[in-house]
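Supplementary Note 3. Input sequence used for the single-chain structure prediction.
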Amino acid sequence: MKKLLILLTIASVTSGASQASAGSAARTGINGSMHDINVAGGGNYKGDLFQRTCAFCHTPHNSLPSGSVPAPLWNHAPSPVSLAPYTWASPANQGVAFNTDPLIGPSRLCMACHDGITAVDSHGSAGSLNGGSTRMTASYTDALGNTAKRYIADLTVTHPIGFKYADAVTARNVTGSNELVLSTNGYIGDNQLVGMNFNTNSRGSLTYSTKTIADTLYSGYLTCASCHDVHNSVNASPAASTIAAGNSYNYFLYAQEEGSAICLSCHIK
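The predicted structure, written as discrete structure tokens, is reproduced below.
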């Protein structure tokens, strides 16, 4: 009996480790991913009493009032921060205005963890009052045991968000240079030629995702969710050569880092 219990324990630990490893890879779902607050392996997270993954953001009952946050059945306090938007460096973009709140839509929901102020491991009291107080700080250790600055305190030094993509397309394409693709385009698919020049002449040979840029916009606005798939479901996997070199990553991006495919899915350079 004792031997059986030991074997079951080993099997359980092995299974848990396998699920965590699988979930940390792209397109393997939210469980075990960097957005699964219950994942063991590092940090001081206070996991959910029932080990629910979704509960840190969503709940089927007693959610925040509809309309108070731009998300279904939201269960996490929205970020209170107010940040100045990016300042356009290019003269062509000067006429592209930011929303009154540059954190419009999903961006403010992302900041509910990534603002460095709101606790990552706290959620509503539907069945389990969680008193977690883990915040993203300079010494922050994430759910998979990694340390990095994952919070944003200054939008002026990060990729601009909170502007209408169509306005940027119009501003950048007035001279016929076609510097931005239309929002009906998909994201550059996996395993394209790394390092190729993704200009207008070479794009005909590329393959694209069925999810378009327009699919990821919030009422036409570019947000954090226009680049990142927070649920780890249709995001890009690293190229095989990158994994073989020991540099695997998962930033929840809709296109690969290799060849700057994520950047060049929108920008024609």
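The helical segments are 2-24, 106-114, 165-172, 240-244, 261-264. Strands lie at 186-188, 208-212.
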